[in-house]
Amino acid sequence: MRIGVDESSASPRMNQYEKGKHTPDIGTLKALADELSVPLSYFFCEDDISAELAVNLNKLSLSDKQKVLEITARLIDESKKG
Fold first, then answer.
1. 54 CB contacts (<8 Å, ≥6 apart)?
2. Which of 14, 32, 56, 58 has minimal CB crowding within 10 Å?
3. Per-residue DSSP letters for 9-30?
4. What are phi and psi of 78, to 5 degrees?
5. Given pLDDT bands bounded at 50, 70 and 90, which one contains residue 6?
6. Cβ-proximal residues to 17 (8 Å cutoff; 6+ apart), any chain
7. Is pLDDT larger for residue 1 or for residue 23?
8. pLDDT value of position 16
9. What is the average pLDDT across 46-52?
10. Confidence category of residue 4, pLDDT binned at 50, 70, 90
């Protein structure tokens, strides 16, 4: 209801989303993300670690995000080398 869903349909609607019977539109997902204080990308993560990374990255400043990007790029380069 806090994201603007009518009180009479809020519970059944969320239940259908959770069971995969219906998929929320992007506007609803964005409202849910904002309400839950998670980034929109959280809903598209394929595993728990990726979801946690998305949440943690969202909390960082732009300069800290840049540092994480550089670290991960370096790690990928190192793993390619052997």
1. 38, 39, 41, 42, 45
2. 56
3. HHHHHHHHHHHTSS---HHHHH
4. -65, -40
5. low
6. 23, 24
7. 23
8. 74
9. 97
10. low
13: its two tokens: 């609607």
More confident residue, 3 or 69: 69
Largest CA distance in the chain: 57
One-letter amino acid identity for 14?
M
The sign one gets for the Cα dihedral 34, 10, 29, 41 is positive
CA distance 58 to 56: 5
Other beta carbons less than 10 A from residue 32's beta carbon: 19
Backbone angles phi, psi at 19, to 5 degrees: -85, -5
